[in-house]
Design goal:
- The N and C termini lie close together (11 Å).
- The chain has a 6-stranded antiparallel β-sheet with strand order 2-1-11-10-7-8.
- It has 167 residues and is mainly beta.
- The chain has one domain: Sandwich (Tumour Suppressor Smad4).
- Helix content is 8%, strand content 37%.
- Strand 5 and strand 6 form a beta hairpin.
């Protein structure tokens, strides 16, 4: 069975269908010669803004998303940073959204299964940027968001992914 679904968004608009992942790892890219995985370059949307067009051109080889025994890892294969937010990257009971910047060539554990189990027992989670899913990861290409950026919400980012993990 699948371990996650991937949704691709441009600002507030989901583009294309959910991409279901069955393999242990998946490439999510714009342009990858002989690429195998989720090709964002093939998704069509009428009337893209110039900002989205410029950001899409920076995705390149994108990311490799990998399910490992300790959690889910993202390896940045792009030539530009990616920005990541997940419930297991946040500091427990912290009111501030934490977004991690991952430089090209680096990886990060975007979801920790053990921490996730502990967080299931935590309540009173209130996020200003929309619904909260304890099993989802959000990754933006080339543009950051949150308290340290001009974009406060991920829906202000031109190109981003929502990784919906299966329980």
């Amino acid at each position: 069975s699948h371990w996650c679904n991937v949704a691709y968004w441009e600002h507030r608009t989901r583009v294309g269908r959910l991409y279901t992942v069955y393999e242990q790892s998946v490439s999510i890219f714009y342009d990858l010669p002989q690429g195998n995985g989720f090709c964002l370059g093939q998704l069509n949307l009428e009337n893209r803004s110039e900002t989205v067009r410029r950001t899409r051109s920076k995705i390149g080889y994108g990311i490799l998303l990998s399910k490992e025994p300790d959690g889910v890892w993202a390896y940045n294969r792009s030539e530009h940073p990616i920005f990541v937010n997940s419930p297991t990257l946040d500091i427990p009971n912290c009111r501030t959204l934490i977004v991690r910047k991952v430089m090209p060539g680096y990886s990060i554990k975007v979801f920790d299964y053990e921490k996730s189990c502990l967080l299931q027992h935590t309540t009173d989670l209130d996020y200003a940027d929309g619904p909260y899913d304890p099993n989802s990861v959000r990754i933006s290409f080339a543009k950051g968001w949150g308290p340290c950026y001009s974009r406060q919400f991920i829906t202000s980012c031109p190109c981003w992914l929502e990784i919906l993990l299966s329980n």
